[in-house]
Amino acid sequence: MAITMKTASYKIIRDHDRCIECLVCVRQCSNGVHRWDEDYMCLVSDEAECVNCHRCVVFCPTQALNVVASPLDFKTNANWRKPDIEQIYLQAETGGTLLVGMGNDRPYPVYWDHLLLNASQVTNPSIDPLREPVELKTFIGRKPDTVHFGSEGVEGEFPPQLELDVPVMFSAMSFGSISLNAQKSLARAAVETGIYWNCGEGGLHPEVRPYADRAVVQVASGRFGVSVDYLKSGAAIEIKIGQGAKPGIGGHLPGEKVGPEVSRTRMIPLGTDAISPAPHHDIYSIEDLRQLIFSLKEATEYAKPVGVKIAAVHNVAAIASGSVRAGADFLVIDGFRGGTGAAPLRIRDNIGIPIELALAAVDSRLREEGIRNTVSLVVAGGIRNSADVVKAIALGADAVYIGTAALIALGCHMCQKCYQGKCNWGIATTNPYLTKRVNPEVGARRAANLIRAWAHEIKEMLGGMGINAIESLRGNRLHLRGIGLGPKELEILQVKAAGE
Amino acid sequence: MRRRIVCNFDVCIGCRLCEVYCITSHSRFPHDVLKAFKLDGQRPVPRVTVEEEGVLSFSVSCRHCQEPECTKSCLTGALQLDAELGIIKVEEERCIGCWTCVVACPYGAIRPSPGERKVAVKCDLCGGTGEVPACVANCPNEALRMEVWVEEG
Ligand code: SF4
Ligand code: SF4
Ligand code: SF4
Ligand code: SF4
Questions:
Q1: Pfam families, from UniProt (chain B) (predicted)?
Q2: Segment B15-73, tens digit of pLDDT
Q3: Are the C-beta atoms of A377 and A334 separated by less than 8 Å?
Q4: What is the pLDDT of residue A140?
């Protein structure tokens, strides 16, 4: 192999006292790192190719393997850090844009970790969720301006709603960007736990059609897989304008991933790049967006909520307000930690804003304008656990979307190399040898377990706050306190400082 | 009642951990992979084999057939149906190592043991003790399951 200035990022430590030479590591690594050498008569590892996905580590039956960051030292320099230098080597070699998978991993503040929840003491006693019911039911969709009660309860037409048993949904991940088995796992888990999944912009594969009544179907600029039948088969429609991981950038599924199944599902020729351009070519104003929203409502006979997904960017509140006025029944705001199969590294790391600030700004603005009640807010982009969910709801969200967390439940080890199509965990790949690594039965069980576990924890946290229904927490920022935040950040979050 | 292990080839990932754990469970250290491979001088052969061709892979062990070729072909009657356990067993004392059964088995599920006195070895459902067999218990993708069926006629 030609000399490259890029050095290996990881070092593989094999404990030969433990290694039984079963070659499981050799068979499991899709990057061809481990191999049996006939001359040495032992196992050798080509570390340069290792992406640190932990597949070999987890599958080794004797725990003989460890993968660590390469100890190779770069001269200590506060300005030129190792990744900065390595990226230049790579660009000097290839002349190309740097690509990455998954979300922004720069050390920007995580505001969830600067927010603390309340708990009741003495007055307004806390609730034990094991003895008393705590309600997590959430409805996503437009709420009517006025409600009339008659002898039969609420009278008159009610706008279409999604009914969620837990205020969490699986965010948009198309077949092609993730494997069919991974998508099937999430779809089944959504049905089992009474939530929804989002099929992304790739159309609906026949094998996930049985789960379509729990699916949010996406309409992106590429219009892949979109037909009246597709729109009608989902529970809700989401117009994707932007994505947190790459605001202002369109989607691109490389031709190698467009095999026969993906090509049929997306309705595009075999082996062609599936490019969803950055702009929708029929949307240049809020009025244009309104036209698309109402075309979709018309096509589905006003029976399904239609939402708009935007990335969290600088003037997100104004954009959100416009989208609500254009007729969106729900708004999805995706923060800059949102994941993706592939994004240009500079875009992912430098564009957009944290979801916490975006959510607070949007919720405040919609309230000021008196239209918050007409729309549901769903936030996404780096929701890691049930406490993040509770904080998001207290900040004003109706529900959250999880993507990365759901994939981690299926086995993803965050190697961030999804764009290579060689995902060793069978998730971000369409290679049939790798996709069978996700057994949909196992995947569905794991993803459903995650939702159930979070539901228990959310109930416990609500109980501790003395709240018996998630609806009562929504936008109740008095249940939050900020810690380690400046006055401007507290002002945007509209949260008091801890101790106040 | 009869029993056997079936493999779902849609999710068998060809890792061969079933072989590793089969070896272990028939070794001197049935619950310790490391010791089985490092300390058992006469490590057993796996009674399950993984077949691979392109993207297809599946593991195959004795089918515990309803009309077994092996019991019919065995010269000494060492291979017999154990009616109680519902599986085909080898009675090692009676095996003379003629390998007629190895030739007769259409699945290649029988192989010679290592060691001085070679005898036929094959899947015994880990002793048929009722415990989940090692390959089923340790298949990381749940590709294997025990099938129990009632004999016809
Ligand atoms: S999987 Fe573990 S025991 Fe098997 S060859 Fe690899 S390092 Fe050795
Ligand atoms: S790429 Fe993954 S499987 Fe391959 S050696 Fe590295 S950690 Fe192990
Ligand atoms: S989905 Fe696969 S390739 Fe992407 S980060 Fe996770 S393990 Fe790595
Ligand atoms: S352990 Fe399971 S997945 Fe691995 S080769 Fe055996 S049957 Fe296949």
A1: Fer4_11, Fer4_4
A2: 999 999 999 999 999 999 999 999 998 999 999 999 999 999 999 999 999 999 999 99
A3: no
A4: 98
ipTM of the complex: 0.94
Give the helix/strand (H/E) hosting B51. Answer: strand B48-53
Compute the distance between CA of residue A113 and CA of residue A97 in angstroms, rounded to an integer. 33
Q: What distance in angstroms lies between residue A30's CA and the mean position of ligand 4's atoms?
A: 17
Query: What does the pLDDT read at residue B128?
Result: 65
pLDDT in tens, A366-414: 999 999 999 999 999 999 999 999 999 999 999 999 999 999 999 999 9
Enumerate domains of chain A plus CATH numbers.
10-100 (3.30.70.20), 138-493 (3.20.20.70)
Owner of token pair 């590591």 = A25
Bind-site residues of A for [4Fe-4S] cluster: 19, 22, 25, 29, 50, 53, 56, 60
Q: Within 10 A of A435 (CB to CB), how many other CB atoms are there?
A: 21
**B13, closest residue in chain A (CA to CA):** A437
Closest ligand to Cα A42: 1
pLDDT at A255 over 90: no
Which of chain B's residues have a Cβ under 8 Å away from the Cβ of A59?
A: 15, 17, 140
Q: What separation in Å is there between the alpha carbon of B56 and the centre of ligand 1?
A: 22
SS3 A321: helix
The answer to whether the Cβ–Cβ distance between B141 and A437 falls below 8 Å is: yes
Provide the b/e sequence for A365-401 (b: ≥16 CB within 10 Å): bbeeeeebebbbbbbbbbbeebbbbbbbbbbbbbbbb
Domains (range + CATH), chain B: 1-62+127-147 (3.30.70.20), 65-122 (3.30.70.20)
User: Would you call B15 and A18 a contact, using CB atoms and an 8 Å cutoff?
Assistant: no
- Provide the b/e sequence for A86-108 (b: ≥16 CB within 10 Å): eeeeeeeeeeeeebbbbbbeeee
Q: Write the CA distances from A226 to A202, A218, A223, integer angstroms.
A: 8, 8, 6
> Does the structure show a pLDDT above 60 at A1?
no
Nearest alpha carbon to residue A381 among A361, A363, A357:
A357
Pick the residue of A28, A57, A436, A446 with the most B CBs within 10 A to test the interface with B by mutation: A436
Distance of alpha carbon B48 from alpha carbon B134, whole angstroms = 11
